[in-house]
Fold these 2 entries.
Entry 1:
Amino acid sequence: MFVEFIQDALFAAIAAIGFSAISTPPRQAYLYCALIAAAGHSLRFLVMQNRYFSLHIVIATTLAALLIGVLAVILSSKSRVPPETFLYPSLLPMIPGIYAYKTFGGLVMCMYQSTEGAFNHFFYLFASNGLTCFFILLGMAVGATLPMFMMKKISFQATREK
Amino acid sequence: MTMTMMTESVCYPSTKDVCMFIAEYSFWLFSSGSTVIRLEKNVRRIAEAFGMKVDFSILPHHIHITVRDSGSLNSYTTVSEIKSGGISFNINTMLSRLSWDISDRKIGFDEAKERLGCIVRSTGSLDPWLLIALVSFANASFCRLFGGDIVAMGVVFISTAAGYLMKQILMERKVDFRLVVIICSFISSILASADGLFSLGCTPELALGTSVLYLVPGIPFINSFCDMLDKHYICAFVRMTDAVVVTACLSLGLLCSMMIMHKGMF
């Protein structure tokens, strides 16, 4: 369990560094993105796969996003960058990409079905993947932006020179 | 009285100048992936520093900006075009710093214009080969996070590198971004299906499924939800639609390769 937890944090950090590189952050942001993503993703892993309880992916993602949001706001004032610079790349490893394309896959498969039963099956896959994707994104956005709005002064004055 | 007016005329640029400056600033800040709330705060901060007020509305392809002086005697309106796709948190950070430096009166209008020009010219992007390596490692790590084995990670690394290289080539040639996503998704997933085709590893379905995830428009998705929570519904809808279209293109490329390789998505 401990090894899996560490592995999850490590791979989430690598994923955050790689995906953040696409959105051209300032150089000093890479390290922070890796640390924040590792903390967030490993929290999600912990609350979803432990021996005592298992939270639903939407709730687990919201909690992880909340932690990422708090860390991003705190570290943003330290490094004089807007919190979004850390926030968004750190959230990327949790983007429900597979649910997103399975939603479209289900929709396309619906069109190919000739029987009602088969159509209903693929429509169910379309709706279930689509709704999961939507609520994960909503949970992520609420969780991640809540700390920004609760600590507005820090969030929107992070880039101000003291 | 005359002295004050003269002083004011020296300190404050005209409404037209401020409006044109804010239009360019908004164009770059919004195009670099800023949320509407940040744009709103930064732009108001700049206008107030020059003793003016600003109102703006964001449309799908344009930002409509009106700047008026504090007595509302003079106003100037302009429409600035929005460029999509070039997300850069480096530019976002430097533009936010610029707004505070203007607000704290550390720099004047002319210097602010000069700095804006420098910021938009600075790319801050990594070497293209390094970028390909980082994205490929990231996607391979993604595969591991979903439970993929070492072979699947290797296959995802290679298929991502090939797909991302193709993306860079096509983007350089100004090919439509949606077409780029379809082609890259197709290439990456065709290559990733080698894991199952040659029975290389134990998790071929994960290699195939995660090989295209580098194309998922994560930041537009998060931005659209953030704008929605801030009640900027039109902007949220536009960003969401853009992200959904890109996801649909990604799925199309993936589905095409799955049909060719006789694989099912579910």
Entry 2:
Amino acid sequence: MYEFDYHKAKNVKDAVAIAKKQDEAKYLAGGMSLVPPMKLRLAKPGNLIDLNEVGELAGIKVDGKTVAVGAMTRHESVAESKDVKKAIPALAKLAGGIGDPQVRHRGTIGGSLANSDPAACYPTAVLGLGATIETDQRKIAADDFFTGLFETALKEGELITKVVFPVPDKACYIKFPNPASRFSIVGVFVSKKGNEVRCVVTGAGPCVFRVKGIEDALKKDFSPKAIENYKHPASGLNSDIHGSAEYRAHLITVLAKRAVAGAE
Amino acid sequence: MATHKVTMKVNGKAVSGEVESRTLLVHFLRETLRLTGTHVGCDTSQCGACTVHMNGESVKSCSLFAVQCEGQDIQTIEGVATGDQLHPMQQAFKDNHGLQCGYCTPGMIMTALDMVRRIPSPSEQEIRKNLEGNMCRCTGYHNIVKSIAAGAKAMAGAR
């Protein structure tokens, strides 16, 4: 691993101030996506700003209409939260399926979103529920947040503080995990809230994306049958040893149908 | 690059040492404290051989910096037995042939203990799901699953 300097942030203000002062600074949340590439010398931050003791960034608040999850809230806390299970069961289930128990004890929602891995689970819920990402500077709509492969709308030094999810009528996330890594080869999140339907895919493109063809069909009839003839174009989708673009395109419809059937 | 003095609790004892920012917890445990029961089985944070407990929860000590563990409570495989008396989970691995080469075993046992903390009597399916973060290249997992089920039962009996 390349050398770096370590800084422990006391609070959000402190973290942002350190980031402004230091070169090549990165925030260290759970570290589950940041530390592995550093070990392989694929990432070389000059300074790490540890957020793990910033208490104000962790915690879950649920009211009738929204679920607000602090950026440093661990996956395990979301998965096990009685309030989240009740308000948005799909979100609790998604969090409980990320990585493995050791990863869920450390990994955080803020870290996952800032990293925007092309096969990550959390971005599907954020875009699939039309959540709002709050930072130290502003509020960003999920539709504007994910901009490309490991790229987001976050500016240099901008820090995610929390994510606010509107409570849907129903939602579901289904992933087709790689048998070895458990990352999604394809994962699909669907939600329905009044007349609005969202269908979001991970694992198949450079970052999460919505599928308008499926959303339109589900708006008319929220049933697996309504989308059984939907064929997603394979062009532009990821293709690797785990699955061709055609295979991934096929999985989008299969998993969307299962997600609609399982929505609660 | 500056070094940091860290003090933490490891297996109930206060320990301290001088570390670089980039020193991983697993290297601090193995090289500074000479607690070599915690293993490094991969470079990609996938294998789980380095699993230890931090404040009672399983974590991969290869994905945490030692400097982050200031003031934290760490338990390694060396802190599991009571003197010469194996912990019921260790005994269960021995009785059920839950290991062959043994390289992954410390991580398996630390994961198993965390699993039983969360799910006191796990089903076979729950055991398999909760082993997603630990790899074994010898056993094919069947005897590990059996060992954890037996260990959980023995732990329930001991309570």
